[in-house]
Amino acid sequence: MRFGLGVPTGTEGLMYPVPYADPADAVRLAVTAEELGFESVWANDHVSTQRYVREEFADPPRYYDPVSYLSYVAAKTSRIRLATCILVLPFRNPVVVAKMAATLDQLSGGRFVLGVGIGAYREELTAMDPDRKINRGEFAREAIEGLDLLWRERRASYSGRWVRFADVESYPKPVRGRVPILSGGNAPGSKQRAALLGDGWMPACLTPAEVAAGVAEIQETAATAGRALPTDFEVALQVGVSVAATREEAVRRFESSQLYKHLQSLSKTTLKDQDPTDIANRNLVGTPDDILEQVERYRQAGVNTLAGLLFAANTVSETLDQMSEFAAGVIAKAGQRG
Known about the structure:
Strand content: 15-25%
Helix content: 40-55%
Shape: globular
CATH superfamily: Luciferase-like domain
């Protein structure tokens, strides 16, 4: 099992309070993650403040561009994988995304992973272009197909309903020929894109049984289409973490955090098919031994990366403390078990 930290590129007002992390803090968390033994860092993507966040906080949150941030972190680290969790494809022209991703992959020595999705808040897309009409799922599928062409072919052209480009020569190519693409989200469309086009699937806050069912669905969809999934197909589950000396303290800490409030807010979008009263059981909450048992259940369900881990902490200092406790009590012991 690999463990990845969710870094604060777009978390203020959502998973963490306002203010939470200035640019130096955001970089410090990533560098510390590598020092503690985390395998990857995962940056999310927002461009404008959501309505409910504006209503809750007096000051606006700071949302950092994930690719620019990861490029800077690449120069401050040497081993850790650099990933988006997720990059919202409808925000950007795929030709630009291909160039950004290949550049970061080159600068980091092939450490970049492109987690993509359609975005949890349509209002951000509307704010960017109020008159734009788009099917975000169809756009994402066409964008992924376009990215593959741009990285694979010398001169690439694509003509779809939403994505079009002609005779684009995009160099340099990624270090490995392509950047791995993980399809983010729990919805049927996300699983279909993972099955037909992706190098992995990135769901959020699912139980082990739900993960196993999703993986089986992806395998069946791929087989029906005649596609062999990559042997290193990544199942990167996004969850929250609250680790403490007792389960009761871990639950109390989790339910008093901004992260818990954020997960409740997603009950009508990303987590709409889940029981909102069962959030703690869909995340890593408990003592280190409790969490190790949860990790093993997820491993058996097909998860090979616990990605974008978000800690139930309301300050950077508290986050660093929980990261250290998690690294010593979970990451190190999980490696020993493995």
